[in-house]
Amino acid sequence: xxxxxxxxxxxxxxxxxxxxxxxxxxxxxxxxxxxxxxxxxxxxxxxxxxxxxxxxxxxxxxxxxxxxxxxxxxxxxxxxxxxxxxxxxxxxxxxxxxxxxxxxxxxxxxxxxxxxxxxxxxxxxxxxxxxxxxxxxxxxxxxxxxxxxxxxxxxxxxxxxxxxxxxxxxxxxxxxxxxxxxxxxxxxxxxxxxxxxxxxxxxxxxxxxxxxxxxxxxxxxxxxxxxxxxxxxxxxxxxxxxxxxxxxxxxxxxxxxxxxxxxxxxxxxxxxxxxxxxxxxxxxxxxxxxxxxxxxxxxxxxxxxxxxxxxxxxxxxxxxxxxxxxxxxxxxxxxxxxxxxxxxxxxxxxxxxxxxxxxxxxxxxxxxxxxxxxxxxxxxxxxxxxxxxxxxxxxxxxxxxxxxxxxx
Length: 408
Known about the structure:
Blueprint: E1 5-8, E2 13-15, E3 26-29, E4 33-36, E5 55-57, E6 62-64, H1 68-71, E7 74-75, E8 80-82, E9 87-91, H2 97-103, H3 107-116, H4 128-132, E10 135-138, H5 141-185, E11 194-195, E12 205-206, E13 210-213, H6 214-217, E14 219-221, E15 234-242, E16 251-252, E17 257-259, H7 261-266, E18 278-281, E19 290-293, E20 298-299, E21 303-307, H8 314-323, H9 325-329, H10 342-346, E22 349-352, H11 355-398
Parallel strand pairs: 15-20, 16-19
Antiparallel strand pairs: 1-10, 2-9, 3-4, 5-8, 6-7, 6-9, 11-12, 13-22, 14-21, 15-17, 18-19, 18-21
């Protein structure tokens, strides 16, 4: 392999601004380059009918997006319109598009790109002149093709492994959801004698199960937010103060912030709840998510705390709420982001067997969830290693750290 030379980006690429085209909208994605918005499985702001300032992108173009300082420059294999905030680059010299697709995603290039990014955090931008002045590693065109072919093959293989492991995680979660529903509705039992006490979306349960109203057996409460500018209200040595951001279907043993005895004395709504308390997010991005206190803790006003002992087990209720979150959100109110209230939780009628059976079901679900968590953690670690391997392979190939065969 001959040495890789370096040239200024402006000798290979120029910015193009072509407006006034009636074409489908496209966006720069983290992994896939430029994709049509209609094909993306995410919510993207739609400008309506006014796309007059949007820029045309063609196959073979490259696009600097809003996150390029982190994810590299996206390559396009389609014709569409991209945001006016994007910079469209078009080759003005013979280059292999596939080589630069990989090169612009390499660690060495992203590092150089980050050095010229202007601004902070999400607001960082890449100026066109700054890009023009970057020195690009450019081998001969035959070697560009060889490197691109090698990386196409290897990254396709790695991507298939990554997709398979992510699919395994999805299937594991789906199986647990089905298993949980069967246990929480008694459909795992052999008895055919059933009835439907509600809620309407739950379906039939064994005739021996009874509907337990939460308010009849358990108590609910919440908390508040002390003034953030009062330094005497917060301390690392204080009582954990839980927010909905910390409700992650796990046992909560700590929190990002702790409140002091002063805050507790001066806020009657700020109460300390015992371990075993079930927490439910009532609004915000995590609405409907749950957690269980593993320590004494206070909380903010967006958390509903369920305490007490009775014929309805808190551990059974925790799993019932966790595995029926989407159904619970159907009971939410509000024209924008859905909200649930303490009244929503208190009014729930939860069909359940006798207390010992409830506890046994909760234990089974906890044990299976722990096993799934271990498997998921292993698969996630393997996936992360594959992602790192992919990135390292691209960087090694475009910097000649590994050999690629050039066709004669």
